[in-house]
Records
---
Amino acid sequence: MEIFALDLGNKQTKLKSSKAEYVLPSQILNGNDLPQQLGTLGNLGIKRDIQMFKTPFDDQSWAWGKDLVNLRLDDYLQDTLMYRDRYSNHAFKLLANFAIGLLATDFESAKKEIMQVAVVAGVPTEDYNNQEQLETLTTVLKGQHQVDIDGQTFNVKVETVMIVPQPIGTFYGVLLDNEGNLVKEELLDERVGIIDIGGGTVLIDTLMNLEFDKKARKQYSTGANDLYESIASRIQDNVSLYQIEKLVRAGIDDKQFSYRFSKNNILDITDIVEQEIKSFSARLISNLRSTFKDIKSIDTLIVTGGTSNIIDQDMVKDTFEKVVFVLDAELANVRGFYKYGLTEVGD
């Protein structure tokens, strides 16, 4: 049975199967709001990474893809970022179905018949301890899914749903290799702190013998969106958080950040972004100190999440010993979910 791993984050959606990996925004656009001229770009040899999705439980067609933000229709995007009852939200249900359908496009069986899969999905630790939330998410994911993508129908039946705490994804990602074999056995005997810095939340957990320490755990609603809002508040003109996110991610390597209002109106905001990143990083360090009251008892501190690439990593390394920043942090959790599925479902 194939395994579909889903990391349906507040800002980004990460997906993995045995055939492909995807990173897309966690926003969708009603097809009625899509510019009619977009279809003519194909005649000019211009291809946008945007596909049209449709499910039987919704009358509308929806656009989803990496290039949605480039359309600059930010006021029309349907966002799934929320902190309560997220899994019962209609936009989230659409996103989950689209994600399963997108993964199915890489398998011929989903085009000709009903493809049977097992789904592994991760949730924040607080949600994992909420039975109502787990049941709601399981209902969204389990069972029959029919998804039309660019006019072609894909049928998937989710036979098994495995929901795990997000830190388990990080831990399994480091613990196992790509075939699900144990490669970091020493971690099983260590007290491991895991910091997952996402778009909407910062999750701080402690694992020992694959068990969570309930006292050394905290969830903060101060993810990357807080950083983007802080940057936006320092620019006097009306700006888009989606465009702020895009420029921060694009400029983080060379430390050059510019906000483009138009071709002739480009504002250099490098100083603002660098100051806010330092403030965000300092606040993160303070929260870590507060959560890990006995930091010396932590053998290894693992930092992951898409926002871990944005923070000032040197500030964190100067404060704590034995800090490990996960490589390919955006995909670390979903790869760990997939490895977890391998251990449960088998080859």
---
Amino acid sequence: MTAEAVLVAALSGRALASAARRAGFLAYVVDAFGDTDTHEIAAGSRCLGGAVNAGFRAKPLIAALTELSAEAPRPPIGLVLGSGFEDTPRLVATLAKRFRLLGNGARAIERAKNPQEFFTLLDRLDIPHPKTRLGRPDDGEGWLSKRIGGSGGAHVVECRKARATRGRYFQRELKGEPVSLLVVAQADNIAIAGFTRQWTSGTGPRPYRYGGAAGPISLEAAIETRMIDAAAAVCRELGLVGLVSFDFILDRGCPFLLEGNPRPGATLDVLDPPGRGLLRAHVEASRGGAVALDPSGEHHAAAILYADAGPLRVESIAWPVWTADRPGAGTRIPRHRPIATVFASGSTPDDARSICSRRLDELAQMLYGRAQHREPNHAETNRPFPERVGGRRPYR
């Protein structure tokens, strides 16, 4: 019997396509990158490059998804949304009229990503979080400016360096340890996919951009319990379903909740080894089924290589097997933009991260090793920071 088909839409669809394949689905993917390995993994794919700067638009996205649906051997069971929809609840609502959403709908996403509503909820639930406000503080020292609905950390800047306030909010900076919790939310329960330790790769104009993650990690039992209780309460109050990630800062033994992401996140690459099938759990939870997850005993890390050494024109190369999100030959990448992802496994999360670090250096040497690979500083490309550059203010 032919495997079930799922539709996927995300700015970068490779991770979800890989997860779908591991879960036994045929993935039909629409994204903005069109990386070579996405095409190889997906049963069918379309690239909407214009979504890089302007975000997805309903008409071309629906057209692409409709075309892919017609290509599938069986009607797709639904649509999984990844990055790129956090600040477009109206678009999500429009998609829901045409396709069955496997995951959270427009209202749930809006409530989770609207800072005023989300942090008011945390106050009511007595969940610790950094001081957060919509208006710029009079003294910006120690405050960060974040784009509403932003992801990947590239949108985060020091408050005093923020040029605008429209579509942004402000949050006190905490200096603790970044930790993420990935769960599968069900009607009245959550299943724990795992904890990961994250880090930034902060050079150039985006000092807080996402660098990578390693896991699963173990924390003190009391801290894990507080994080799990916070995630369960938020999922219950917002009616979230499927894969949801929560980002915390551990400061002096207290987990402060920074944000919730009501979709499969970056740590899917770390916490979903072959055989675990987290996307299958996501689909089952979205359908209203019960989910139970076995713990993952393997330790993995994933990290992003950025073009910090200078602008780059990608040549045709033999990509190492431990790479992903591989841009096609001829892609031009300006300085500080993401190039690709590297993976590693190890006996511990720290070991996996160390191997990742060495592989980042190895891949950088491979790509920058010849002078003709470098591009002048005005090089342009369709690979943005891991957040779209354009944006409309979604919540008022």
